[in-house]
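[worker-b] picked up task from shared queue
[worker-b] task type: protein-ligand structure
[worker-b] ligand name resolved to adenosine-5'-triphosphate; SMILES cross-checked against name lookup, match
[worker-b] sequence length check passed
[worker-b] input payload:
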Amino acid sequence: MNASAHTARSTSALLYLSGVTVSFDGFRALNNLSLLVEPGEMRAIIGPNGAGKTTMMDVITGKTRPDEGEVVFDGQADLTKLDEAEIATLGIGRKFQKPTVFESHTVRDNLLLALAGPRSWYRLLAATPTKAENDRLDEILTVIRMGAQQHMLAARLSHGQKQWLEIGMLLAQDPKLLLVDEPVAGMTDVETETTAAVLREINKSHSVVVVEHDMSFVRALGVKVTVLHEGSMLAEGSLDQVSADPRVVEVYLGR
Amino acid sequence: MIQRFLWRGLDTRLRLFIGLVLLVGIVPPLLNLLLPPSSPLYVPAYVLQLVGKYLCYASLALAVDLVWGYCGILSLGHAAFFALGGYCMGMYLMRQIGSRGVYGNPILPDFMVFLNYKELPWFWHGFNHFWFAAPMIVIVPSVLALALGWFAFRSRVTGVYLSIITQAMTFALMLAFFRNDMGLGGNNGMTDFKDILGFPVQADGTRATLYFASALVLALFLVIAGAVVGSRFGKALMAVRDAESRMRFLGYRVEGYKLFVFVLSAAMAGIAGALYVPQVGIINPSEFSPGNSIEAVLWVAVGGRGTLIGPVIGAFLVNFAKTYLTGALPEIWLFALGALFVAVTLFLPRGIVGLWGQYKARQERTKRTATA
Ligand SMILES: Nc1ncnc2c1ncn2[C@@H]1O[C@H](COP(=O)(O)OP(=O)(O)OP(=O)(O)O)[C@@H](O)[C@H]1O
Ligand SMILES: [Mg+2]
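[worker-b] inference finished, payload out:
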């Protein structure tokens, strides 16, 4: 146990999961899962419904505590001991499967809230956005192509626009690692393509783990794929490699 | 710096409204003091007392709205903070009676003599000074809110469970304050006040001043609340209300935000209670009754939660209706209250102020379809 923790700390991996198990009332949503993500990498995670993809993100972000296993970030931080806010501060950002934006705020204010910077209540009482912050917001609005909607209430955005706003919020947070859960669910083909382009752009300066069912989207990303099944890793490799793997075919067709 | 912070939160509509509150605070007392009772514009003392009470209720409503409307914490125990502020003021006023009580004891209030107290309980010391009582009015409710909030928010108690805890708190306090051995007047509470800051409480000038002070405090609370919700803190606060766990994943310590508004709101409620007591002339444990807290929530719901003007309007309208109905048709009031609660929940989710917003939105829509 200690020895493996030691190796984890001495690897160069940005994210290291080893032997992670999570049970809900005896049902194992994650079962001895191990995963390595290198700095600068973009990784796609696929797997049938209920495979444990979202649960894995819950474990990494501190929402769910694993029953067993290690989760180490950046070679040193033991994520199983930290809470959501501490983990976010370390540099892990998350986009949820169901888009959650702050509906009663404008697009710009949503980004402002996500923007890296002061988080404590006493500092925000007096804070006004600085010039640098405003410039950064303008930049992000350009990247997510929402400059025209910046003063619109988030509640009035379309589903796809909310997804983009969430990606923009991730960018604003400027984390080392972005966890993106099903970013193209409910998007048109064109929107899906744009999203892939945006994520590739983001990957130039951030590490990304993206969960997605949409195979054409995963193909457009063109990165290493990990297949999850019943809480464990089933296969890993390029999309062509894993889709040629008979076990993967069985999992997807056997349902 | 602080001035900038305070003024930044005020949009034109809120400024106008604060002006209106100040006008309501200045004109009636002047009409009461300067005009002879025979004048048609004369404002009788009982009207001042009534509206003065409403002004304190409006401050309480604003406090409730700050936690409920802007942070999503449905407190069903805010009357407890109001009553605690009131009791601090009551203790000061009791000590001002001195030897003018029925038993003529220079130190012990009448109820203590009656209950055979030999000496003043420790927590009564200092309350003969206004400089001691005044900060206590803020400190006592704040400390209670801090303790309750600290435990509840850190253990992530939210929603209905939090409401139940706050309701239990005010109920427990009511039972405690009903006890004679608490040393706070038991079920009779405290009354027969004589002086406040050396002025007789019953005198016209004192009444007018207390009334004006209530309006001034309400105006000040509107400025403070406006600054808080208009700041970047306020944006974060509303985001906590709308999607608490999302804020955690963004790295915000949500507890700090909740605790700050909860304590601020309790302090505001305490001050409102302290102004209420000398105007109605009595404080007793029934002020803690769970129904009072629920009524305060209703004022906010009727006026419009999550707006600053709404709670003030709601507090005035509902209490005006209550005063009228309990006088004209006493058996109706409780049913009317229940019906109002149902009606507002079903038909006016954003309150009266929200109605205005809906009207504007509809107008805009018809205008757009007309041009299209
Ligand atoms: N809080 C919970 N309590 C009980 N069971 C849960 C909980 N969260 C997840 N599960 C179960 O764990 C399993 C894995 O769920 P998870 O949401 O991680 O799957 P997923 O791979 O994200 O699926 P999808 O593709 O549908 O999003 C599911 O069977 C789910 O029902
Ligand atoms: Mg999922």
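[worker-b] attaching auto-annotations
[worker-b] The longest strand of chain A covers residues 27-37.
[worker-b] releasing lock
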